[in-house]
Structure formats: C-alpha cells, structure tokens
Input
Amino acid sequence: MCGIVGFAGIKNSKEAVLNGLRKLEYRGYDSAGIAISSSDNVLSIFKDKGRVEHLEEIITKDLDGPLAIGHTRWATHGKPNKINAHPHISNNKRFIIVHNGVIDNYKELKYTKLSGFNFYSETDTEVIVNLIEYYSRKYDVSSSIRITATKLEGSYSCLIIDKETPDKIYVLKNKTPLLIGCGEKGNIIASDVIPLIGYATKYTNLEDQVFGIVTKDSVSITDYLGNKLEYNVNQVSVNDEEITLGRYPHYMLKEIEEQPDVIRRLISKYFDGENIIINKDLVSMFKSINKINFVAAGTSMYASLMGKYFFEKLCRIPSEVLQSSELVYSSPLIKDVPLFIFLSQSGETADSIAVLKKVKESGYPTLLITNNIGSTMASISDYCLDIYAGPEISVASTKAYVAQVVTMSILAKAVSGSITKLKNHLKSLAKKTEEILGKKVIIKGLADQIKDAKAVFYIGRGIDYWASLESALKLKEISYIHTEAFSSGELKHGTIALIEENVPVIAICTQEGTNGIVRSNLIETEARGAKSFVISMESLSQSSDSFIIPNVSHYLTPLLTVVVTQLLAYYTAVNKNLDIDKPRNLAKSVTVE
Output
C-alpha cells in the first residue's frame, strides 16, 4: 500500500517527486525517501522514519536535477525506521530502487541466488535490487531487470535507477498499480493519477508483467521478453481544486460535506429526465442470472449489504455478500447462474483483484462498481459503473460509501423499475443531507460525551444494523475507541456481558417494523448501566432521542444515518486531537493481500 513517484524531465525533479509523495501519503506514512540526480548525474539518497514533511527538512536545499524517484511507506516487511525506508541500494551501489508490493518468495531468493550478498534492512525490496545486480554481471541492465522480474512471486511496482545510465528510470509492474504520465516538461510515474496533476495531461495505466524505460522525452513499454507493447492513453481529468483542502481543516470533513453534491452528480450522470442511462446490455443481462454474489472489503462490503437489500427486495434476485479476502482462498459452492458484483473504491484492491481473476477464469459475468474506471479491476470486468465520487483523500471513506449505495439503487431501479420516483427521492436525499450538515453542533455535543469511552457499541436491526456496521468502522478507525456493531437481537446471546457502567450504546432506529424492538433492547442495556443514545427518523422519533434525521424513503435511511455517524466519528477524533486523515497503521488503498 506504499506510494511511489518518479520524474524524468528537464529540471525540478525533486519538487515533482516531493509534490507527488505529499499527494500519496494516504497510501502510507511510516517513512519516506527520495533519490535525486544532480545536473552532473550524481545521485543522492535521503530517507528517514516519518512523513514527507520531515523528508523535506533533511534534503539538501539547493540540490535538484532532471531525475528522481521517491517513496512513502506503509510497512509490510520490517519496522518503520530509517534502515527499512526506501530507496534501497544494491551491494555494489550501482542500482537504486523504490518498491510498492510484497515479494512472497524473497527469503528463498535471498538464500539461493544471493547467498554472498549483504543485507542491511528487513525488507523484501533489498532482494529485488540485489537480484538485479546479480544478473547484471552477465547481462545488460534491461535484460537484468526483466530476468529479475521473472524470478519474483508476488506483487510489485518498482522504479529503478542505474548509475551507469542516469538519464533513465526503469519500471516493473505486476499486480500493484502504476501509471505513466506524459507532459511538456518531462514524464512522471506514480501509484495513482493524483501526483500527475500539473505534470501530465495524458497517462497510461500499466498492465501486469510489464517492463518500461522512461526518460524525459520518451516512454518504452515491453513484456518481460522485450516485446514491445501497445498501451491505452487516458486524459488526466482530475484538477487541483478537487484535491486541495480549501477552507477545511481535514479532508474527512471536506469529503463528508461533499456528499450532497455527489448525490446530485450521480443524478445528472445516470438520469435523462426520468429515464435511467445505464448500459442496456448490462440491464438485460440480469434476466439471465438467478443469483448475485457481491464481493468487497471494508466500507465497500458494508455498502454491498445495501446492494443485497435492493436486489432482493426490489428485483427478487437472491443475493449474498462475500468478503474478498476470504473468497481468495475459499471459493463458494455455485449451483446457480450467478453475477458477481465487485465493489472497490480504488479498483486496485489486491484481494478483490485476485477473486475477480478467478471468477473470470470460471466464465461468470462480472460488474465493477468503482470510483476509478481506469483501474486494474475496471480493465478486467465485463461491465463497470462509475460512482462519480471524485478524489477521496482521507483514509476513512465517507462519500464513496454514499456514492456506491446510490449507484446500486439506480441500477436496481433500472433492472426492476419498482422504485417509484427514485430521482425525486435522491434529490430529496441530497437536500436532507445538507440539513444534517447544518446541525453539526448537536453532533459535536454527542462526541463530547463519548470521547473518553474505552468501548462503544452500535445496535440496530435490518438495514439499521448494516448502517451500524459502517458507523462502528468509522469510529474505531479514526478515534481508536474499540467500537463494535451488533444486531440488537443478538445482545442477549452473549454480547450484553460486555455492558458496563457508562458504556455508550448507540441505537439506530429508522425502520417502522423494528423501531420498537430496538428501543426495547436499548432499555435492556440501560438496566445494566449503559449510557444510551438514539439516532432516529423524524416519523419514529421520541423527545429524548439524541439526533433526529429528516423523513426519507425507508430504503435510503442509511445514507442519512451514516452522515450523522461519520460526523460523530470525526468530532470524537478532533476532541482526542488525533491525526484524522491519516490514522495509525492504516492506508487508503489496500494493494497487498
């Protein structure tokens, strides 16, 4: 989940790479490093534990040149420290590398091919750079790097500098994302499209198992045998305004407040008047299947639960939600004619990619719902729907969840035609989201009451339980408070043993059929000392409720309740003075299994 950036240009490579690393810190921020060439082709390396801001402080101020590679790290192999920070250098000091990914067979390579080499870090990356040195004793640099790639098992995107050819950046890519952007002042390579902004107008998203050579005015891409490959070129469509904080103190708050605009954008993209604009072949394909398997992880998995609800209740298609990290190693028994719907914000989620490839090999139809239609998963899937959420920088996902659920509601409407006046419901949803955003002072008060808790529990039933799962995830990942969500009916089956004096229990009550029983379950926790809170819908509310959301169609209520709980998590973390956009141990895009 690390981020890598390289730049080969006329000059100012240091700033291009540092600027890119700042934009990629959401992928990891345990350590950072850079290798910079001077105008006379002398290479200097700077790296240390900590963030890009610290890296900038230790770089020689007037040092710059036409070529640089950099890295911001989420630790996989080895502790986050200076020794394990990238770039790494080969034993003979000739080759320098930055690497995103995990090499599964690095120990085997270390003890078979590299028994005479010295290793200074705990990383798998040092094996790659020394293997290149090993083969360079017999082959030219390009051949040495390509041969090295054939020996690696696992995932990797690598940028390599050879001191003997200091005008080139050598590229390897397999499984983890890597893009090459072309601009007037040089060519830039990065793990995501965001670092390309301001440096490139066009880019290509590299396929797996490719080798490249990038200079200031040329790009060459081949397979591992050296055969030249053709590649697609995309426009850089993101702009600086979308990725800057502006008036906001944190990206998370900015992205929460962007949610009404995201809903309206989805309406504009998927509706023409009252007609839905979705690929007709995709819609008609639903007639030939009798089961939907949703595959996702984290927030996307909780969004999938709403997809299951839409397609079972409205389209009468049996559906199941499967966890991608488990499905990689445990294939389900399939007796039906299934459609696999994958949800991934980045489209680069490693375990979901592995499942997608297995599903494709089995010949089942696939649909991807994503925020990145230029991603690896998009290139593999039969169909793809864009959620149009725009860049999401904060590690804790907010607007992507809302966008995924809204997109699935539109698709279900297209398939079934049974959600009457959906467009009007979504317009109302956007307006009512703004109403909630205007009541942040109430949510700040609730955050004050839970900030010192050691544990928090969310409860609900049905889709309120599914909203509770996402709500608990948000609170735990940015406040570090142990938070769990339970179906309120399960409390008496063991969980109620965890209730202690003043433990916060937050009940979500937006469904008429379950409102009474969830409130009854909450009273049971109060009897054991819990400090209770209720988030309810206006039509079901009571005077003592903690926060009341406006009335909305019952199947869209999670899209309002999660806005409340997103803000609750945010203000709790603010009260605890935590790093909200970059919570500890986490990274935005999970590109390793």
